[in-house]
Amino acid sequence: MRLNPKLPPGLVGVVVAVTAAILLTACSSSSSTSPSTAPTTSASSATTTSSSTTASSTTTTSATTANFNSCSVVTQAEAASAIGQSVTPGVLGNATVEGGLACVFYGPSSPAPTTPNVGQPDTVRVVVVKGSDALTWYNNYKSSPQVHAQPVTGYGDQAFYDGAASLSVLKGSTYLRVAVSPAGAAPSLSDEEQLATAILSKL
Q: Which fold has domain 70-200?
């Protein structure tokens, strides 16, 4: 025979009240915990995004300063006028002497294959270095053993001809080096001065 004990009515009311209170407390705790987590994640994400943007901006600025586009200050027509013949559009190459980017124009007698990373005959080569390193590169080249620097007046703050192939000019925090090398002829300082005059007005 199975017994079915019955709780007194008063005790049943107490049990129901306690159970309801427990359930309300649990819901209230869950509801208040959830929103507090979201702002923390959002703030962390915003900080990460901000740091990423700042780093990207700094990198871009440094790259732009270090790798000035020398082709932006000399035209194909100016290069052709300096060398006295038609030339190709300028192409960028590494400039190891000046530590920047060279803009190189090729005449019809340039040897094949052409490479803008080194000096070649029948070319016009322009390099512009901007910033705090300009003076260092200018002085380093001027004092190098293979250079017989000859002072040239009337260009920038100071200038010199290297005695063989190019004109170097320092104007403020900008270093300009110009080399005009026609095929079958010695480089011409007067041609380089002509081109330097055209470029310096843009720097």
A: Protein Transport Mog1p; Chain A (3.40.1000)
How far is it, in rounded angstroms, from Cα 89 to Cα 77? 9
* Series of mean pLDDT values for 10-residue runs along the chain (203 residues): 45 40 40 41 41 37 56 96 96 83 94 87 94 92 93 97 94 95 88 96 93
Cα torsion through 76, 81, 82, 85, rounded to 10: 90
Backbone dihedral angles phi then psi of residue 172, each to the nearest 5 degrees: 60, -125
Closest C-alpha to 70, from 134, 165, 8, 24? 134
Q: Is 21 helix (H, G, I), strand (E, B) or coil?
A: helix
DSSP state of 184: T
Picking from 121, 64, 115, the residue whose alpha carbon sits closest to that of residue 94 is: 115
